[in-house]
Design goal:
The protein is mainly α. Helix content is 34%, strand content 6%.
C-alpha cells in the first residue's frame, strides 16, 4: 500500500475524513486492496442508469461506502423521552394540543411576531429540544432521505418541532423562507435575511442576530458558507412551475434511482438549498441544529402542499394514497421507505400517514407567498417588475441586508451545551449539484450577478442539452479529498 493510501486510511480511522464538495477536483487514489462487496453491489445497480460512467460510478460508490462507515450523531435516552411524548398525545391522529396555526413567510411577520418566534427558538435551544430534533434527523438518515418517505417524514418532523415551539408560546407558528424571491436578486447572499433582523450572518460562525453563538451537531458553533459555489442555487419560481406540470407523487420524488427526473424532483431541489447555505446545513448530521433548517423545510412543505392541491383539484388523484410503485421506494435497498414501513422517530405512524389531509386542515395551513404589488405589506420586500419579462406583474424581491435598521440587541445566553462532543464525521453534501448550473456566488459583483441572473432567466430550464450533460457529469464527480 503506498504512502498516500496509508495516510488516507489513517485519517479515516480517526474519523477526520473529509468529503469533497460537488464540482471539486478529483483525487485519484490507486491501490491493490480488495474492493468491498457493498461497493461492487452499488456499481452493479448503477450499470442500467442513464449516462452511466464506470469511472464516476466507482468514485461515487466508494464515497458512499466510506460515509456509511463513519459514526454519526446518535439519539439518546432523553431524545427517546422527547419523541415518546408525541406518541402519548397521538400527534397526527388527534388534534394538536396547541390548536391550529398559520404559516407565513418570515419577512411578513411583524416585529412582535419575530421576537416571540426567536424567543421560542432560544428556549428550545437552552432546554435541549433543538439538540434532540437535530440528533433524530441526523440518525439513520437512509430512512428518510433519498426516497419516498422524504416528504411525509419531514412534514411530521417539522410539525412536531412547531408544536414544541408552541408549547413555549402558543402565539408562535413556524414561518417559511420563500427563497424563490431571493433567487431574483443579483446576489442572493445580500438578502436581508442574512442580517441581524432575521437569520444573522451567512458566512462563518454565526455571531450576529437571534441565532448567534449556538452550538451544532458536533458541539462546535453553527456556521454557514452561503453562495460559495457556482454549482448550487436557490429554488426559482420557474422550478416550482415545472413541478406543477406533473400529477403524481412519483413524478416529484426519488425512488431507487437517485439521478432520475432531476429538474422536477423536489428532494433534489431541496438538496441544492442545503448546499447553497453550506456550513452546518451542508451536513446531514448537523443540518437540523441551524434554525434555518426548519424554515427551509417549511417552504419545501409549502411547495408540496401546492402540488397536492393541484393533484386533488386538477388531476383527480387521491392524495392520501398516491405513493411510489412497490419496490421503487429508495436508493438504499434497506431504506424502509415503503408506505407501510414505520416512520423513524414516530413509530406509532407509518410513512404514508404523512400524506393525511389533516396535517394541513387540522394542524396548520399556509398563507400564500407574497405577490406583487403589495408583497405581503412587508417593509423588507418590494415588487420588481423588470427583472423577469416572463412575469409581467413582477416578482417580490427582498431588500438588501444593509437595510436592517435598528435591530434588537439579542442578549440570549449561550453557555450551556446539551450533548457530549461527538466525532467530527464527514462532510456529506445533500445531493448533486444543480444540473443546469447556477453561476452566481457571493464573490460576484452586483453587475456580474445581474448579468448571470438575466442569462439564466432568458435561457430557461435545460435550454442547452450539451450544457445539461456537462453539468450532470460535473455533479457526479464528488470524491474523497483531504
Amino acid at each position: 500500500m503506498d504512502a498516500a493510501v496509508e495516510k488516507g486510511f489513517a485519517m479515516f480511522g480517526k474519523g477526520v475524513v473529509l468529503l469533497s464538495v460537488w464540482c471539486a477536483g478529483v483525487l485519484a487514489v490507486k491501490s491493490t486492496w480488495e474492493k468491498p462487496p457493498a461497493v461492487i453491489e452499488c456499481e452493479e445497480r448503477a450499470k442500467d442508469e442513464p449516462f452511466y460512467s464506470e469511472n464516476l460510478t466507482e468514485q461515487s460508490c466508494m464515497r458512499t461506502f466510506l460515509v456509511d462507515l463513519l459514526e454519526t450523531n446518535k439519539t439518546n435516552d432523553n431524545d427517546n423521552i422527547t419523541f415518546k411524548q408525541f406518541e402519548q398525545m397521538m400527534f397526527g391522529k388527534q388534534l394538536p394540543p396547541s390548536g391550529p396555526r398559520v404559516r407565513r413567510d418570515i419577512r411578513v411577520l411583524n416585529e412582535t411576531e419575530l421576537h416571540k418566534l426567536f424567543d421560542a427558538f432560544d428556549v428550545l435551544y437552552r432546554n435541549g429540544t433543538m439538540a434532540s430534533f437535530g440528533r433524530l434527523h441526523g440518525t439513520n438518515t437512509h430512512l428518510k432521505h433519498h426516497g419516498a418517505s422524504f416528504l411525509p417524514w419531514h412534514r411530521v418532523f417539522i410539525a412536531a418541532f412547531e408544536e414544541k415551539l408552541r408549547e413555549v408560546d402558543p402565539d408562535v407558528s413556524l414561518p417559511y423562507w420563500d427563497y424563490s424571491m431571493d433567487y431574483y436578486m443579483p446576489k442572493p447572499s445580500m438578502s436581508i435575511v442574512w442580517s441581524k433582523c432575521f437569520f444573522g450572518n451567512g458566512v462563518g460562525t454565526v455571531l450576529k442576530g437571534p441565532f448567534q453563538s449556538i452550538y451544532g451537531g458536533f458541539n462546535t458553533p453553527v456556521s454557514r458558507d452561503i453562495a460559495a459555489s457556482e454549482c448550487h442555487g436557490l429554488i426559482s419560481k420557474e422550478d416550482i412551475d415545472e413541478l406543477m406540470t406533473f400529477c403524481n407523487f412519483a413524478d416529484i420524488t426519488i425512488g431507487k434511482t437517485l439521478y432520475k427526473n432531476a429538474s422536477h424532483n423536489l428532494e433534489k431541489l431541496h438538496d441544492d438549498v442545503h448546499d447553497w447555505v453550506g456550513g452546518d446545513m451542508g451536513y446531514l448530521g448537523s443540518a437540523a441544529y441551524d434554525p434555518i433548517f426548519y424554515m427551509h423545510h417549511a417552504f419545501i412543505d409549502y411547495i408540496w402542499e401546492k402540488f397536492r392541491s393541484r393533484q386533488a383539484d386538477e388531476c383527480n388523484v387521491d392524495i392520501e394514497k398516491d405513493y411510489r410503485e412497490p419496490g421503487d421506494y429508495s436508493v438504499d435497498p434497506n431504506g424502509q421507505q415503503g408506505p407501510n414501513d414505520t416512520m423513524h422517530g414516530f413509530e406509532y405512524l407509518k410513512n404514508i400517514d404523512g400524506l393525511w389531509k389533516n396535517w394541513t386542515t387540522a394542524f396548520y395551513s399556509y398563507e400564500d407567498a407574497p405577490e406583487c404589488p403589495k408583497c405581503g405589506n412587508s417593509k423588507y420586500l418590494y415588487c420588481n417588475k423588470s427583472i423577469n419579462p416572463n412575469r409581467p406583474n413582477g416578482v417580490c424581491v427582498p431588500k438588501t441586508l444593509d437595510l436592517c435598521v435598528n435591530p434588537k440587541n439579542w442578549t440570549y445566553v449561550r453557555d450551556a451545551l446539551y450533548n457530549q462532543t461527538q466525532n467530527h464525521g464527514a462532510k456529506l453534501l445533500m445531493g448533486p449539484a444543480r444540473l443546469q448550473g447556477y453561476g452566481r456566488t457571493r464573490f460576484n459583483t452586483e453587475q456580474e450577478g445581474l448579468v448571470l441572473l438575466k442569462q439564466e432567466i432568458a435561457k430557461g430550464k435545460f435550454g442547452d442539452f450539451q450544457f445539461f450533460i456537462l453539468n450532470f457529469v460535473q455533479g457526479m464527480s464528488g470524491l474523497l479529498t483531504e
